[in-house]
Amino acid sequence: MRFVFKTSYDADISLFKHRAQAVWYGLLLLLVLATPLYFVAIGDAYLLGEITGMLILAIAGMGLMLLTGHTGLPSLGHATFMALGCYLNINLLGAGVPWVIAFPLSGLIAGLLGTMIALPVLRLHGVYLALATLAMSMLTGDFVVIAEPWTGGIAGAAVPDINIFGMEINRYSTPYKFYYLVLFVAIMIVWFYRNLLRTPTGRSFTAIRDSEISARAMGINLTQTKALSFFLSATAAGLAGALFGHSAGYVTNETFDLVMSITLLLMIVIGGLGFIHGAFFGAIVVGIIPVAIANGRTFLATTFDVNINVPGLESALFAFILVCFILFEPMGLYGRWLKIRTYFELFPFYRKDMFKRQKSYLKTDRIQ
Amino acid sequence: MDFLQLIISGLANGCVYGLIALGFVLIYKATEAVNFAQGDFMMLGAFVCIGFTNHEYMGLSFWIAVPLSILVMGVLGYLFNWGILRHMFGQSQTSIVILTIAMGFIIRFFAGAIWSHEPTSLETPFAGQDIRSGGLVLGIDEVLIVVVTAILTLAFYLFFSRTRIGLAMQAASQNQLAAYYMGIPVKRIHSLVWGLSGMVAAVAGILFASKGAIDPSTGLLGIKAFAAAAIGGFGSLPGALLGGLIIGLVEPLASRYGPPGVSQIAPYAILLLILIFRPGGIFSQTQRKKV
Question: What topology does CATH give the domain A45-346?
Answer without folding.
Answer: ABC transporter involved in vitamin B12 uptake, BtuC (1.10.3470)
